[in-house]
């Protein structure tokens, strides 16, 4: 398996890989597991790179510098051009925060650690993955790290150990075991980090260094292995989806499929090999790297520019544009460098690569230092765009699983006040801090706010360890300190129904099956909230249930900033009130039912402050965005709805000796 004779079937495999990834990203129905195309690329890279190293080493002419110069010639020119073009497009299209993030991602990519960068970005308030133009470079960083480390490892093992192939096999098993473990315990590490992905590249590497046998496999065996292997890849491409625990054991299907196809078609010419070697697939395979580079930023920038969402025809146009750019990159960038028509020498390509990467890295840092060159935008567009960022004051009051941020409760108003209340909830509780802070200062009472992102303020088995610990700490705080009132605030519908687009994100599942069922989720929500309220009332606390603010259909600051950049109206954007009421119907009824059974429980609703009767729920007022995304109120939004808290403010002001009051006392 050391021959480097050109194999059309491997280019065909590249075509399968890039088609799977691109069709998946462009949302083509059925291609729900297209993300495994990256794993196909990993195995192919492991095989080809190791084949090159091993043949040259056996011939006594392997050079680390020559190897890295070839890798630089193959990978960097097209990558550098794509990043430069993205910087230019971003100047005209991206809001400051997003342009700054583009700079950060490019800075990390030029030092080959963008996989670490994106892994650490997987936080509660980070930009959605489908709006990060450089996100796809994580896989390039994994490969680049492998290209640096693996030649050193292979040369060391093969020169020091007699059974070095066995050592490679053991390393691949360790990597695979780490991947399986990480999928269950640290899925972001399993996805992004080389140690958990190395076994896929090593699978191809081990295939490349198999001892050569004089007798090839029989045609029947090769045909069978080839067909089964293609089936494994296709099962993953069309059978996996976003709920598949990946990579881990699930990655075995595409990895073994690629290994089987490369092996079988290296033994005999098979039917699958002829298919993979067809003119169309080989052509796609030849441009696969450049197409992979361009398809993602084209799609992201297209979404960014569309404002109101992409139509099917626009998605199709972007697909074609990415293919055209991929072909152009292969023809006019990849080709001249690979054929040594530009920077032919080893030294020249390495020096030019270092200079270009260093320059891009400095530009990326410049975008960070300049806060994304905010002066590019008009004052109004900039004001909208900057609403995207939560203030440090709010963030310090919010715990978060992703950042392992425990946080401590925040206190507002005079600490010596005899009237004290606890605001307990998720990030929506933190978003209301400006309103609670104003009220505490105005009426001279003390507010303690305890918030944890994505955490229901009552016990559920599905709550994360961080959420459960937070709720336990908050319960202990209630037992330790005297609070007359407890305000429960959350994005309730998220836990019961998930995101607007479906049940994705719903955290209340059937305890028997572990699956989501709408009726069961509603029942368990009612039981959990009712039990919590009863416990709080039995402990002597007055309870306030706050309904959630209208969930908008779009990222508010993003849309308003883009509209302002285009000189278009921003005052007519928002969600129809009827849609908000329909989504909240069951939850609202539950609140009212709990309150009706106990005079010490009241319901507060911010929606009337945002929504006109029989009309729509606004997202902007007097040039200020009322949301920081599609569901969290901004500081301006929190202050706008502050009036809905007046019954609570008045009741707390009137509290003197004890918290238990009649219903008339709080009306």
Folded structure, characterized:
The protein is α/β, with parallel strands linked by helices. It folds into 2 domains: 8-376, no CATH class; 391-549 and 577-606 and 638-666, Rossmann fold, CATH 3.40.50.1110. Helices cover 60% and strands 6% of the residues. It contains 28 helices and 11 strands. The chain has helices at residues 8-25, 37-58, 64-93, 96-110, 114-120, 137-160, 164-185, 187-192, 194-208, 219-239, 252-267, 271-276, 279-286, 288-306, 312-338, 346-369, 379-386, 392-395, 427-431, 433-443, 465-480, 492-497, 518-538, 556-565, 577-596, 607-610, 635-640, 646-654; strands at 398-399, 410-412, 420-425, 446-452, 485-489, 542-546, 574-576, 601-604, 616-618, 620-621, 624-625. Strands 1, 2, 3, 4, 5, 6 and 8 form a 7-stranded mixed sheet that branches. It has a two-stranded antiparallel sheet with strand order 7-9. A two-stranded antiparallel ribbon has the order 10-11. The protein is elongated. The N and C termini lie far apart (82 Å). It is an enzyme of class 2 (transferase). InterPro entries: Acyl_transf_3_dom, Acyltransferase_3, SGNH. One of its GO terms (cellular component) is membrane. Its EC number is 2.3.1.-. This is O-acetyltransferase OatA.
Query: What is the mean predicted local confidence, pLDDT?
Result: 90
Note the main sheet: 7 strands, mixed
- Helix tally equals 28
Give the distance, in angstroms, between the N- and C-terminal Cα atoms: 82 Å
The unreliable regions are 656-667
What's the number of extended β-strand segments?
11
Shape: elongated
Determine the fraction of residues in helical runs and give it as a percent range: 55-70%
**CA-based gyration radius:** 29 Å
Domain module count: 2
Structural class: alpha/beta
Strand content: 5-15%
């Amino acid at each position: 398996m050391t021959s480097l004779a050109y194999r059309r079937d491997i280019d065909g495999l590249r075509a399968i890989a890039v088609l799977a990834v691109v069709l998946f990203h462009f949302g083509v129905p059925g291609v729900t597991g297209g993300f495994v195309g990256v794993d196909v690329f990993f195995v192919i890279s492991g095989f080809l790179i190791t084949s090159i190293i091993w043949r040259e080493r056996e011939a006594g002419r392997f050079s680390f510098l020559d190897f890295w110069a070839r890798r630089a010639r193959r990978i960097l020119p097209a990558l550098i051009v794509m990043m430069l073009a993205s910087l230019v497009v971003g100047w005209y299209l991206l809001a400051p925060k997003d342009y700054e993030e583009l700079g950060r991602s490019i800075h990390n990519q030029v030092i080959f650690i963008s996989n670490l960068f994106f892994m650490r970005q997987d936080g509660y308030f980070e930009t959605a993955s489908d709006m990060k133009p450089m996100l796809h470079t994580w896989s390039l960083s994994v490969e680049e790290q492998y290209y640096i480390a693996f030649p050193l490892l292979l040369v060391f093992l093969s020169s020091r150990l007699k059974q070095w192939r066995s050592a490679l096999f053991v390393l691949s098993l360790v990597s695979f075991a780490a991947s399986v473990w990480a999928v269950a315990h640290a899925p972001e590490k399993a996805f992004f980090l080389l140690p958990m992905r190395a076994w896929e590249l090593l699978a191809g590497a081990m295939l490349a260094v198999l001892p050569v046998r004089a007798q090839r496999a029989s045609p029947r065996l090769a045909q069978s292995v080839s067909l089964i292997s293609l089936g494994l890849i296709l099962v993953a491409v069309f059978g996996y989806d976003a709920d598949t625990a990946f990579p881990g054991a699930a990655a075995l299907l595409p990895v073994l499929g690629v290994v089987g196809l490369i092996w079988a078609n290296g033994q005999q010419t098979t039917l699958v090999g002829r298919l993979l070697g067809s003119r169309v697939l080989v052509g796609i395979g030849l441009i696969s790297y450049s197409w992979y580079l361009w398809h993602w930023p084209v799609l992201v920038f297209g979404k960014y520019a569309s404002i109101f969402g992409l139509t099917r025809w626009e998605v199709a146009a972007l697909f074609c544009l990415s293919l055209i750019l991929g072909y152009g990159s292969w023809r006019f960038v990849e080709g001249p460098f690979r054929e040594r028509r530009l920077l032919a020498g080893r030294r020249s390509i390495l020096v030019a690569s270092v200079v270009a990467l260093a320059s891009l890295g400095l530009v990326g840092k410049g975008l960070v230092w300049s806060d994304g060159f905010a002066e590019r935008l008009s004052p109004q567009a900039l004001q909208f765009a900057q609403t995207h960022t939560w203030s440090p004051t709010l963030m310090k009051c919010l715990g978060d699983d992703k950042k392992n941020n425990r946080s401590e409760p925040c206190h507002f108003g005079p600490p010596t006040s005899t009237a004290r209340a606890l605001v307990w909830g998720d990030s929506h509780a933190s978003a209301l801090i400006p309103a609670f802070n104003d009220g505490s200062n105005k009426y001279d009472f003390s507010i303690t706010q305890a918030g944890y992102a994505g955490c229901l303020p009552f016990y559920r088995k599905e709550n994360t360890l961080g959420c459960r610990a937070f709720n336990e700490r908050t319960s202990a705080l209630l037992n330790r300190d005297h609070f007359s009132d407890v305000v429960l605030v959350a994005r309730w519908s998220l836990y019961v129904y998930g995101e607007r687009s479906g049940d994705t994100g719903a955290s209340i599942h059937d305890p028997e099956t572990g699956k989501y069922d709408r009726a069961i989720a509603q029942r368990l929500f009612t039981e959990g909230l009712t039990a919590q309220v009863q416990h709080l009332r039995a402990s002597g606390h007055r309870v306030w249930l706050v309904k959630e603010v209208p969930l908008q259909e779009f990222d508010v600051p993003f849309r308003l900033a883009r509209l302002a950049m285009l000189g278009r109206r921003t005052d007519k954007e928002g969600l129809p009130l009827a849609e908000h009421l329909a989504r909240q119907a069951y939850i609202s009824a539950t609140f009212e039912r709990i309150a009706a059974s106990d005079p010490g429980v009241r319901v507060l609703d911010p929606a009337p402050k945002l929504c006109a009767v029989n009309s729509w729920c606004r997202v902007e007022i007097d040039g200020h965005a009322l949301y920081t995304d599609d569901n969290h109120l901004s500081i301006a939004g929190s202050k706008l709805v502050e009036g809905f808290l007046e019954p609570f403010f008045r009741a707390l002001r009137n509290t003197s000796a004890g918290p238990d009051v009649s219903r008339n006392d709080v009306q």
